[in-house]
Amino acid sequence: MNSPSSILVTGGAGFIGSTFILDWLRPGAERSPIVNLDKLTYAGNPETLASIETSPLYTFAHGDICDADLVRSLLARHQPRAIVHFAAESHVDRSIVGPDAFLRTNIDGTFTLLQAARAYFQGLEGDKRKQFRFLHVSTDEVFGSLEANDPAFCETTPYSPKSPYAASKAASDHLVRAWAHTYGLPALITNCSNNYGPHQFPEKLIPLVLTYALRGKSLPIYGDGQQVRDWLYVGDHASAIRAVLDRGRLGETYNIGGNNQRSNLEVVLAICALLDELVPKSAYRPHRQLLTYVQDRPGHDRRYAINARKIERELGWRPAESFETGLRKTVQWYLDNTEWVERVTSGAYRDWEQTNYTDRGGARGSARDQMKADPEVTR
Q1: Superfamily holding 7-199+233-256
Q2: What gap in Å lies between CA 76 and CA 169, rounded to an integer?
Q3: In this predicted structure, what is the pLDDT of residue 355?
């Protein structure tokens, strides 16, 4: 049996979860043992955790958070002091094409975890009961969309989800709050902005653009490319989760943001500029010529922005990376790990690319056609 001070992480083979685990168990961190429950869907990659897979502080459990018997058995066997719940379907485009998996994992899975955690918590006594935490990791997308001059989302912003993904995460947030209020489960919620960094599955904007540009493929820009997001380096997110788990007030929500609002077009152009610099012999320079405007996502939210003053004020957390430093680290990592990208992008992912990007077609044409007409493309 592991130490009673272990923590159970769900979705720990995914992008954010694996970053959290690697940071938690880094040499010299003196952290509790980790039990990682992951279903290993297309976005889960145990290779990311290869450096710790033989560590006595790490245990991997292959399974589904919707499997109530499995969750109960893991809690009984490992006696964790906390559950950190990352596991989720998280890609908006996939939720539009097939929402069923999002409702099952994000809603039913969270419900299953909450029921198991509730029963486990009720059986704890003394210091173990006082110490236990359920930390639910969520998204800023539950708040809906902002206009250009609207104030950033704060923890009390009313929920207004606009996609099946956002709706499923909003529902899971409400379940966690209800279990905390009704059953006294010692829960915390975090709502983060767009994450980026090493090991991100190449369906998300930054790694997708990177991998496409290196192959000389067209870089798909939804609509006019002016959708704005707050970009959070994944290592900063991991440190924020640690702060909330260690010092967060029970029952509270903490927004986690990178203080880096950028339009999608700005992000893509910044990636192209870095590739021009770091891959000077590329046959595709300038990489911005690969931009192609495609049909926009249905119901595409225009702007997200996070007000993260609460976590700074109460817990002393601030992001360490600027967008420029974080993006440079990210681009360099993908340049150094092209074989990793090839391994994780399976045949099934190629089929998804065809469905989601190629089949959209060019809505406004390529950047080559627009450089004269649209000065933003040349910046």
Answers
A1: NAD(P)-binding Rossmann-like Domain (3.40.50.720)
A2: 27
A3: 57
The answer on pLDDT for 3 being more than 70 is no
Residue 308 confidence (pLDDT) above 80 = yes
Site of tokens 């043992």: 33
Backbone angles phi and psi of 148, in degrees to 5 = -55, -40
Positions marked active-site = 140-141, 165
Tens of pLDDT, residue by residue over 164-216, are 999 999 999 999 999 999 999 999 999 999 999 999 988 889 999 999 999 99
Q: Pull the structure tokens for residue 256.
A: 């986690």
CATH 3.30.70.1350 fits 205-225+261-299+322-378, yes or no: no
